[in-house]
Specification:
Helices cover 44% and strands 16% of the residues. A 6-stranded mixed β-sheet has the order 3-2-1-4-5-6, sandwiched between helices. The longest helix has 19 residues. By secondary structure, the chain is an alpha/beta fold. Helix 1 runs parallel beside helix 5 and helix 3 packs antiparallel against helix 4. Strand 1, helix 1 and strand 2 form a beta-alpha-beta unit.
Length: 149
């Protein structure tokens, strides 16, 4: 049975995830370091990890399995999930794959270096309706693929 793991602390698509998992009756874990209200949906479990760098990421990586799905913006977490045969998708609907994760990790490292020098101060573009729509479409596609025998 496919399970969904959400890196939930700053995830803007928790409601959209819940719509998809309810339609497919998929067990889901919202993993955070606190401050998240429990869901009334019996398919959703809120997992509160101890605060600390990468605690939620470590919990997800330790529990995710082959064909499960991780919703995250965290590129290193996505890489860990892909190594275990899971799927990984960003809240904006962009899908991490074995073909693009290396480039994503390298780009992240380059941008981190540039930020440290103070040359780059802007963040990602604002999250909007188009991102939500794209996420719903791509999440549905991944769920269908993960559930194939």
């Amino acid at each position: 049975m496919v399970k969904i793991y959400v890196d939930a602390d700053a995830c803007p698509v928790k409601d959209e995830v819940e719509r998809v998992i309810t339609r497919h009756q998929l067990e889901t874990y919202l993993v955070c370091d606190g401050g998240l209200r429990p869901s009334l949906n019996p398919l959703v479990q809120v997992v509160v990890v101890t605060q600390g760098a990468d605690a939620a990421d470590d919990w997800i990586a330790d529990h995710i399995g082959r064909e499960d799905i991780c919703v995250t913006n965290d590129i290193p977490l996505a890489a860990r999930c892909l190594k275990q045969g899971a799927f990984a998708i960003r809240p904006n609907g962009n899908i991490f794959t074995d073909d693009n994760i290396g480039t994503a990790l390298a780009t992240r490292a380059i941008k981190e270096g540039i930020r440290e020098t103070g040359e780059m101060t802007g963040g990602p573009p604002p999250f909007g309706k188009a991102d939500r729509s794209k996420f719903l479409d791509r999440m549905e596609m991944i769920v269908q693929e993960a559930m194939r025998p």
